[in-house]
Amino acid sequence: MQHASSRRFKENARRALDDAQLQRALGHVKKNFVERRAAAAARLPEFEALRDRARDIKNHVLENLDVYLERFEAKVVANGGQVHWCADAEAARQTILRICRSVNAKLVTRGKTMIGEEIALNDFLEANAITPIETDLGEYIIQLRHEPPSHLIAPAIHVNKEQVAETFRAAHTDLDPKRPLTEPPALLAEARAKLRSRFLAADVGITGANFLVAETGSSIIVTNEGNGDLTQTLPKIHIVLASLEKVVPTLEDAATILRVLARSATGQEMSVYTTVSTGPRRADDLDGPEQYHVVLLDNGRSRMLGSEFREALRCIRCGACLNHCPIYHAVGGHAYGWVYSGPIGAVLTPSLIGVEEAGHLPNASTFCGRCESVCPMRIPLPKMMRHWREREFERHLSPPAARWALRLWAFAAKRPALYRLGASIAARLLKLRGGQSGRIASLPLAGGWTAHRDMPAPEGRSFQQLWAERSRP
Amino acid sequence: MSERPARVGLFVTCLVDLFRPTVGFAAVKLLEEAGCTVEVPRAQTCCGQPAYNSGDRADAKAIAARVIAAFEPYDYVVAPSGSCAGMIREHYPTLLADDPAMQKRAQTLAARTYELVSFLTDVRGMSGVTARFDGTITYHDSCSGLRELGVKQQPRKLLATVAGLRLAELPGAEICCGFGGTFCIKYPAISDKIVSEKTADIAATGATTLLAGDLGCLLNMAGKLKREGRPIAVRHVAEVLAGMTDIAPIGESKAE
To answer: What residues in A contact B45, CB-CB < 8 Å?
Structure first.
C-alpha cells in the first residue's frame, strides 16, 4: 500500500503552513471551488432533493452490496469481460501485473484513479519493468514530480504553473530550452504532445470508475480532458480499477448521482466527458479494447460496511468536503500523509490503514460541520471523526496528558458543588493573572493557547457566585 | 409577543460562568423582557462537549444525564450559546440512544432546548429590543448555532433594532474561527492560521466591535485581535441586545 506519513501530521502541517507557495495555491481552493459549487447548487431548485435521492440510492446499495456486485459481475461476464475480486492491495497489484504480462505489456496508460494511488500501482509497475503513464494532466504532473495527489479531483492543486514548467523541462529532455512555457495553454500543449504518442503506444489502459452499473455491467468515468476515453479505448486491454462501493443498481441511478457530482466538485453541471464502457469490443464495433477487466478492490471496505463508518462508503470523491474545510485550507492535502485528505480522508484513512497510523486526522477538526453541510451524499463526517476519537479513547491511544486533564475535568463536572468552587477559584486567579490589562499573555499549561493569542481574563467572579448573591434576600 | 409566562431554566454554559457572567445576566434580562421567568439550576456544570468530542462517551453520558435531570422541570432550556444548545438538542438523544428510557427523556428535553437569540425571536416572538449601541459592528456566525440550529437571521433581526448600531457584514462569516474546543490546544499552529485569517477579515470590515453568540469563539477571536494589537472590541451579542455594555469588552479592562 502507499506509504503513509499520517503519524507526522503535526510536522507535515507545520511545513505546509510555512510554505508560502502552497498557501497561495490553497487560496484558490477556498475561493473558487466554494463559489462555483454555491452558484451551481443555487441554479438547480431540486439540488437538495437530489442530494437526498443520491444518499438513498447509495444506502440501498450498501444494504444489498452483495446482490448488486454479483449482478454486475454476471453482466460483465455476459458482455465478454472479467471481474477480479481482490481482497487487498497486493491482490489487486498482482492481478493487474498478471493481466499486463499476459500480453507482454511494456507501457500502460492510466486514467485518473484514486484506487491506483491507494494501492501504489505506479511504483509497483515500474518495479516490474512496466512503464505507467498518467494521462490526466494533474496526475501526469505529480507523477513526474514523484508526489502523491494533494486533492481528490485536482491532484496537482498545490503546484503553480512555474513549477509545472520546471517539471516539464526536467522530464522532457527533448524540450527546446528557448521555448516559452509561461502560460497554461503552452503547458497543456506540451503535455498533450508528449501524451499523444503514449496513448497510441500503450498495451494496456487502466482507468478508475465513478460508477459500476449492475444492470448493464458498465463502468462510467467522468473527466474534463478526454484522457480517460483514449486510455480505455485505444489499448488492447482496458482494466477498470475500482473499489466495490462504486456499484449502483441502474444507469438511471448513476444519472441521478451524476447530477450532484460535478456540481459539488467543480460547479459544472456535468463534467466535460461522461463515458460509459460496456465490455470489450464487439465484432461490429469500430474501436474498443479486445479485453475488458474489472479489478474490484475491497481493501478494508467490507469491514467498514459492518461498522459505524459505513456511511463513508457513500462517498463519490467529489472533493467538496476538502474544498470547504478550514483545516484543509490551512495545510493542504499532503499534510494528511496518505492518499485521501480533508474530512473524508480523516474518516477513510484510519479505516484503511489503521487508527494507530492515522489517529491525528480525525482529531484535527474543529467539528465546524461545513463538510457535512456540502457533502452531496450527506455523509455525517464530523460524527464519524468523533467515532474515531471514541475508538482511540477506548484503546488509550490519545495522549496521556490529555487523558489526565479530561479525567480531572470530568470528575469535577459530575460534582456541581466541587465544580462551582473550582470555577470561582479559577475566575479569581485568572482575573489576578490578567492584572490591569484584562488579558493574559502567557499561562502555564495553556501554552497552546497563549503561544498565538492572549487569553481574555475573566470578570473575577463566577456567574453562579453572583447569581447566588443576587437571589439571596 | 406571547402572553404565556414561560419558565426557563438558564443553561449558563461553563465558559460564561467562568469568564463572562455578564452574558448570563444579559440573557436573564432579555428572557425576562420576553415574558419568561428565569431560574438557574444549581446542579449544572457543563454540557459535556469536552468529553463527548474527545471520545470519552462514558463521562459525556454521565454529564448529559445530570443536565437532563437538572433541567427537566422547566418549560424551556435556554443557553447563550449555539454550541451548548446544539449539544443538548442534537447530540444528547444519540449519545443516550442505548438506554431507551434515558433517550426518551433526552428527546423531550432536546425539543425544549434553544439558543438564546433564536429562542427570543422564534419562540417568544420578540421583534425588537430597546437597547442603544453607538458604533459599527460585524457579526461572526458560530458554526454549531449556524449549522446545527439554523441561527443566522435571528441575531441580525434583533441587532437591526438597536439604536445607533450599524452592521458591516463579515465576508466569510460562516467560516469557522479555528476555536473548535480542545482543537485549538491540540493543534495550535493550525488554529492560529485559521483565526489569523478571521481577524484579518474582521479588520477589513472597518467595524469597531465584533459580536457573536458563542463565548468560545469570542475568546479565541478576542485573544487573537488583542495579541495583534487591533483596536476592535469584542462582545457577546446578548450584551449589546440587553444594553449591558458598561463592562469592558472581552480581553480588555476598564482602564484602557
So the answer is: 412-414, 416, 419-420
- Please enumerate in sequence order all residues whose Cβ is within 8 A of that of A76, keeping only pairs 6 or more positions apart, or say none: A82, A83, A217, A279, A292, A294
Going from N- to C-terminal start, the domains of chain B cover 6-122, 128-241
β-pairing, A131-134 vs A204-207, is unpaired
Instruction: Name every chain A residue with its beta carbon within 8 A of the beta carbon of B68.
Output: none
| Among candidate residues A288, A320, A118, A294, the one with its CA nearest the CA of residue A213 | A294
- Cα A256 to chain centroid distance, Å, stands at 22
**Nearest residue of B to residue A445 by CA position?**
B185
Domains, chain A, ordered by start: 6-302 (3.40.50.10420), 408-471 (no CATH)
> What is the per-residue pLDDT across A4-57, written as a single tens digit (0 to 9) for each?
999 999 999 999 999 999 999 999 888 999 999 999 999 999 999 999 999 999
**Rounded Cα gap, residues A396 and B73, in angstroms:** 38
| A287-318: b (≥16 Cβ within 10 Å) or e | ebbebbbbbbbbbbbeebbeeebbbbbbbbbb
Closest CA to A300 of A354, A362, A219, A336: A354
Would you mind telling me the total number of residues written for chain B in this entry? Answer: 256
Inter-chain contact A10–B189, Cβ cutoff 8 Å? yes
Put simply, whether B156 touches A (Cβ < 8 Å) is no
What does the alpha-carbon distance between residue A10 and residue A178 come to, in Å, rounded to a whole number?
42
Q: What are the counts of helices (DSSP H) followed by strands (DSSP E) for chain A?
A: 25, 12
Please tell me the distance in Å from A49's CA to the nearest CA on chain B: 18
Q: What radius of gyration, in Å, describes the C-alpha atoms of chain B?
A: 18
Which whole-number Å values give the CA distances from A8 to A158, A159, A394, B220, B237, in the listed order? Answer: 19, 22, 22, 26, 40
B6-122 and B128-241 have identical folds: yes
What are the beta bridge partners of residue A211?
A: A220
CATH number of B128-241: 3.40.50.11810
Q: What are the pLDDT tens digits along chain B (256 aa)?
A: 445 689 999 999 999 999 999 999 999 999 999 999 999 999 999 999 999 999 999 999 999 999 999 999 999 999 999 999 999 999 999 999 999 999 999 999 999 999 999 999 999 999 999 999 999 999 999 999 999 999 999 999 999 999 999 999 999 999 999 999 999 999 999 999 999 999 999 999 999 999 999 999 999 999 999 999 999 999 999 999 999 999 999 999 975 5
For Cα atoms A200, A201, A207, give the angle at the middle one, nearest 5 degrees: 75
Domain B6-122 has CATH 3.40.50: yes
DSSP code at position A217: T
Per DSSP, the three-state class of A107 is: strand
Contact B56 A373 (CB under 8 A): no
Question: CA–CA separation, B155 vs B165, rounded Å?
Answer: 13
